Amino acid sequence: MSGSIASYDQLVRQVEALKKENSHLRRELEDNSNHLSKLENETSDMKEVLKHLQGKLEQEARVMVSSGQTEVLDQLKALQMDITSLYNLKFAPEVAGTGRSTEDNPPPPAPHRDGSGDLGRATFRMLEELDRER
Q: Where is the Adenomatous polyposis coli N-terminal dimerisation domain (predicted)?
């Protein structure tokens, strides 16, 4: 009979350990859920800022075209392409069902001969620096 008491005590200890682990996992899940919500809110805010900036850039582009400043406009287009490529490389979700991330996609376009590639590389470095700080 002492063997069954030992088995019972062992089962009680295992149940207690499982309850503690369950509580810990629930807290961790709740923390992760809160963090995810925070990130979703930040992403939404960033999208709004980007929409606002894109609107301003489009307005500036119309002014530049009407005043004949197409060289700066070409540089802005190249910068927008570089930023879009960077965003797709860094922040796009995994390709559904393939298990491959978007890092498998080709790199951003090569620098342009008009020097706008230097601007894109500088922007890329600044965004990487901001990402590291975050």
A: 6-57
Residue 25, amino acid: L
If you average pLDDT over every residue of the chain, what do you get? 75
Contact status, residue 69 vs residue 60, Cβ threshold 8 Å: no
Q: What is the pLDDT of residue 17?
A: 97
Helix, strand, or coil (residue 82): helix
- In angstroms, the CA 118 to CA 39 distance is 31
Report the distance separating Cα 78 and Cα 84, nearest Å. Answer: 10
DSSP 107: P
Q: Does 71 score more than 90 pLDDT?
A: no
Sign of the dihedral through C-alpha 105, 106, 107, 112: negative
Widest pairwise Cα distance in the chain: 97
